[in-house]
Amino acid sequence: MAPVNVENITILTEFIILGLSDNPQLQAPLFLVLLLIYLITLLGNLVIITVICADPRLHTPMYFFLSNLSLTDICCTSNIVPKLLGIFLAGDKTISYVGCIVQLFFFMGLACTECFLLTAMAYDRYVAVCHPLHYLLIMNHRVCVLLATTSWMTGFLTSVTIMVSVTRLSFCSSNEIDHIFCELMPLLKLSCTDTAGTQTVLFVAAALTSVPASLVTLTSYISIISAILRIRSAEGKIKAFSTCASHLTVVSVFYLSIFCVYLRPNSTYSLEQGKMFSVLYTTVTPMLNPIIYSLRNKEVKNALRKVIGT
Quick one: which of 38, 92, 143, 303 is 20 to 30 A from 59 by CA? Predict the structure, then answer.
């Protein structure tokens, strides 16, 4: 049913997602592990959002951006993991062409949005450490809302730009996507038309998204480290760095995955490596984010105790 022949041209109407492994003995263990990760991700990020909304003491710029980050993590993992769980549980690996395009659109939009949100959080930490006396004046409510809204809008506009190019491609031979979801790079390998233009659009979009964002983040942290080194007391240095440690950890994992997958020549792209990095930034990272921020943050832990009444 997948191929439809129109005037001797075979057009695919659905794809087959091969997933992580075809080994029958691994299906049940992989399903349980992935389900556990997914439930922890949902619970952890929902708890973060709930605690931040419930506790007025957390109504600050840093936690406002953190709640937005948790929302992107919930949406990103929910866009991919349920279908992957269905593959493990029922063995149904098919996905319609439209479903594939929609999944890819939201993945790209959410990934770009997270990139911009992490940049906004880096700028917030820069202002907090380097300009503490003017922090509330600079990072006022209007600025925070503007930064968050811009992050979401720019992220999905970037995704639209990429998807316009993708929808112009034709898929008329193999319909097997050797990946865990409808990811762009393995999808391009299935196209029977020239993908040079789409690859150029992807590279430019990725560069315009991640390179300026990473430069802003890097510049912010260079300024932060410089300011911390000027603090005389060791206790003051530790306290200042602790306010940035969680964000720096999350940023490092995020950019490592993005650069390894998207900002390298197509000739060096490996599907197996792509799968592993995809597992990292679509399932593991969203699960770790709330853990990283809550375990190292006394304010979040105190607010959580207050919410649960302990």
Answer: 38
213-218 long-range contacts, Cβ below 8 Å, gap at least 24?
Answer: 213/115, 213/116, 213/118, 213/119, 214/255, 216/119, 216/122, 216/123, 217/118, 217/119, 217/122, 217/251
- Residue 5 in any domain: the answer is no
What percentage of the chain exceeds 70 in pLDDT?
A: 88
* DSSP-derived pairing of the beta strands 14-17 and 176-177: parallel
> Looking at 56-117, which runs of residues are DSSP E strands?
94-96
- Residue 89 lies inside a defined structural domain of this protein: yes
The torsion defined by the Cα of 181, 249, 206 and 100, in degrees rounded to 10, comes to: 10
For 175, the domain range is 13-308
Q: How many CB atoms lie within 10 A of CB 21?
A: 13
pLDDT of residue 247: 78
pTM above 0.70, yes or no: yes
Name the phi and psi angles at 95, rounded to 5.
-145, 135
Could you report the per-residue pLDDT of 198-214, keeping only the tens digit for each?
Answer: 888 888 887 888 788 88
- Find the CATH number of the domain harbouring 121: 1.20.1070.10
Mean local confidence (pLDDT), 174-193: 85
The span from the CA of 4 to the CA of 26, in Å, is 34
Apex 233 CA angle, 232 and 237, nearest 5: 95
Q: In which region does residue 189 sit, left (phi positive, over 0), alpha (psi from -120 to 50) or beta (all else)?
A: alpha
